[in-house]
Design a protein that fits this description.
This protein is an alpha/beta fold. The protein contains eleven helices and nine strands. Helix content is about 50%, strand content about 20%. The protein binds ligand C2E and magnesium ion (3 copies). This is Bifunctional diguanylate cyclase/phosphodiesterase.
């Protein structure tokens, strides 16, 4: 009896797993088509210098409306990585965001572009970035790449090489979602990174938690010692913005200022 139910259980799990796999497979096929048929689009979220009340730059974020419903970018990117579509999608993101940058941004504003792990580690990545920047005619110093901690902890030698090449083109590098993955503080010292984006989970907690405030203060201190810029992500309330300003963190991004929107729908002064 035990054997039988054991077998039954196995079939149950195997079905559920099979279903999940075929859903992802299906998604990857739709994604491929979406890419070919121009169903993907980019939205942009302002990054604000609150002390001057100016928009210093924008973060580009991908969107996909599939059969009327939005697919989360995290799912989209993980499926793209798994099914080998990430390079094509990554290049498309660069082309879109840089063309928008050349058309819509003022010369003092930068465009920040997210880069996934496999995209960043690929041997042709630097060449593709270079090519897309030249095509758009944007000053490379106005282009930032957002890379997660996972990307920089995977292969230190290769990461250093990629970063050095990107830096020599003039680009700036920021560490996205800083503080959530297992950490790279030691690596920040040796890697050519310019900016840290404090993960929004810490910002969400600051109004009620001295611990979260303490973590942010520690990150700010680290950043100032290492000469890194800082952005606070996911600022949603005035209280959070005021607390951050009091800690001397004046560059912020979040729904308080603006949701990500198509560029022509952002109404900013
Ligand atoms: P991320 O790079 O950390 O982007 C910030 C995410 O936080 C965005 O979610 C943004 O819409 C959201 N957000 C901004 N302000 C607030 C706020 O005040 N409150 C809350 N609750 N959320 C806020 P989104 O657009 O869903 O993107 C999720 C993640 O997907 C991104 O996290 C990034 O890792 C990835 N992603 C998005 N677009 C791209 C892309 O073009 N390429 C790559 N490789 N990854 C992308
Ligand atoms: Mg980002
Ligand atoms: Mg982030
Ligand atoms: Mg994130």
């Amino acid at each position: 009896v035990a054997k039988k139910s054991g077998l039954g259980q196995f079939e149950f799990y195997s079905d559920a797993l099979g279903q999940r796999l075929s859903e992802r497979h299906h998604l990857s096929q739709d994604l491929k088509q979406a890419l070919e048929q121009d169903e993907l689009f980019m939205v942009y979220q302002p990054i604000v210098l609150t002390s001057e009340q100016t928009v210093t730059g924008y973060e580009a974020l991908i969107r996909w409306q599939r059969k009327g419903e939005f697919v989360s970018p995290e799912l989209l990117i993980s499926v793209a990585e798994e099914y080998g579509l990430i390079h094509e999608i990554g290049q498309w993101v660069f082309r879109e965001a840089l063309s928008e940058a050349s058309q819509s941004l003022s010369p003092s504003q930068f465009m920040s572009i997210n880069v996934s792990v496999n995209q960043f580690l690929h041997k042709d990545f630097v060449e593709i970035v270079k090519c897309e920047i030249e095509r758009a005619g944007v000053d490379p110093e106005r282009v930032e790449l957002e890379i997660t901690e996972t990307a920089i902890v995977s292969d230190l030698d290769w990461t250093s090489k990629q970063l050095a090449q990107l830096k020599s083109l003039g680009l700036r590098i920021s560490i996205d979602d800083f503080g959530v993955a297992y950490s790279s503080i030691g690596r920040l010292k040796s890697l050519m990174v310019d900016k840290i984006k404090i993960d929004r989970s810490f910002i969400a907690g600051i109004a009620g938690s001295h611990r979260d405030q303490g973590i942010i203060e520690a990150i700010l201190l680290l950043a100032s010692k290492l000469d890194l810029s800082i952005v606070a992500e996911g600022v949603e309330t005035n209280e959070q913005a005021q607390l951050l300003a009091r800690m001397n963190c004046n560059t912020m991004q979040g729904f308080l200022f603006s949701k990500p929107e198509k560029m022509d729908q952002l109404n900013l002064s």
